[in-house]
Amino acid sequence: METDIAARRKRKIMFGLLILLGVVAVVVVGIFYLLQEHSPTLAPEFSLTDLNGNAFNLSDFKGKVVVIDFMATWCGPCRLEMPEFKVIWEKYEDDIVMMSIDIDPTESVQTLRSYAQEFPYATWTWARDTANLGQAYHVTRIPKTVIIDQDGYIRFTHVGVTPSSTFIQEVDQLLPSG
Question: How far apart are CA 73 and CA 84, in angstroms?
Fold first, then answer.
């Protein structure tokens, strides 16, 4: 009978240690995740040519907030997001750099130009992804929007149609008056 009590006590202790170990593991993973979320990543540098034939580099825009819309002309949700970009473009046109980058390598400059012309308010930069940015920026679904701070760090990413209010909130956090 004493060995039965000792065995049960030992099982309870082992069970308690397993639960404690599990809780510690969850806390460690949670802390690691939180640290990853709040550690900005340097945005990969790139060089592209816009629809007007002007070459540009991401580093040309250091000191400005950069909003990159990764899209394709055949993407329905990308089209739905254009009015959201219109709102932020009209609000911040002088304070940010905004660009729509077509990540579909099969689409021509003319296809992208025709698409951009459907949105006369979209006077921001338009370019084709000739630098494999889809891979560099981990674009697995579109639309994907990346917001880069004045020092060149990725501060926010969104996949899917995102309301302009979300973009405004995040850009405001990065601007001096925000």
Answer: 16
What residues are annotated to the active site? Answer: 75, 78
| Local structure of residue 98 (DSSP, 8 states) | E
Of 118, 124, 3, 137, the C-alpha closest to 52 is: 124
Residue listed under structure tokens 């046109």: 93
**Section 32-41 average pLDDT:** 64
Token pair 């599990």 is at which residue? 22
Q: Which residue has tokens 């997001």?
A: 81
pLDDT attached to residue 18? 74
Strand-pairing partners, residue 102, are 71, 128
CA-nearest of 81, 50, 90, 70 to 146 is 70
pTM of the model: 0.77
8-state DSSP, 50? B
pLDDT at 22 over 80: no
